[in-house]
Amino acid sequence: MKIAITIVATLAFLGIFAGIFIYAGWVNVAADVPHEPYVFKVLEVAREQAIRRDASGLSVPADLSDPKRARRGSGNYDAMCVNCHLSPGQENSEIRRGMYPEPPNLTHPEPATDGVLQSRIRFWVIKHGIKASGMPAWSKGGVSDQAIWDLVAFLNCPPSLDATSYRQLVHASDGHVHDSADHSREEHSSDEHHHEPDQSLH
Q1: Largest CB tally within 10 Å, which of 49, 74, 117, 154?
Q2: Residue from 159, 103, 109, 124 nearest 50 by CA
Q3: Entry pTM
């Protein structure tokens, strides 16, 4: 009984202390001051585990490796993502340097132990975003699931994609397109004029 009372009292004290700490304005929310290592680790593990759980049941399109999808996705990546996640040959950006946590450099992806799971995670993050990180939920901006999968297809391109190949791919894309429902009609024009950039993915 004494142990239970002690635990309850301790939790109550911690709750009161936390309330005072928060309402006194002592929580440092400045982006140029990092979290304490243990706080960052807790947040990192919570984020990774939550995303992995929520993304695990997603169905990955069978044609995700189609170069046409990567070509289409490159246009949206160039319009929506390069300021934070960079492009081949780009060392850094003003906005990326000022963000905390610093967005990952997607031109240097880590090797995937499970390509399907990685594709699911990428789709989930692009669609839903991550709270208090600067990563937006692009679905709320009107980006369709098909267009998001196109982005995933682009992110799955070989990491050896260089600056020249990247610019060719973006130039051959349909540009900044939120809904890829009409791509089947546009492919006829794309196939006639954009064969060379597709070859850069092989």
Answers
A1: 74
A2: 124
A3: 0.82
Which residues lie below 8 Å from residue 154, measured CB to CB, with a gap of 6+? Answer: 69, 70, 71, 72, 73, 74, 76, 77, 169
pLDDT at 197 over 70: no
Distance CA 135, CA 138 (A): 9
pLDDT in tens, 18-65: 899 889 998 888 999 999 999 999 999 999 999 999 999 999 999 999
Q: Which of 2-16, 26-40, 109-123 has the highest mean pLDDT?
A: 26-40
Q: What is the domain partition of the chain in residue ranges? A: 60-199
Is it true that domain 60-199 has CATH number 1.10.760.10? yes
> In whole angstroms, what is the distance from residue 80 CA to residue 70 CA?
15
What values do phi and psi take at 135, rounded to 5?
A: -85, 110
pLDDT at 169: 94
Tokens of 151: 């982005």
Q: Helix axis angle, 145-155 relative to 67-80, nearest 10°?
A: 100
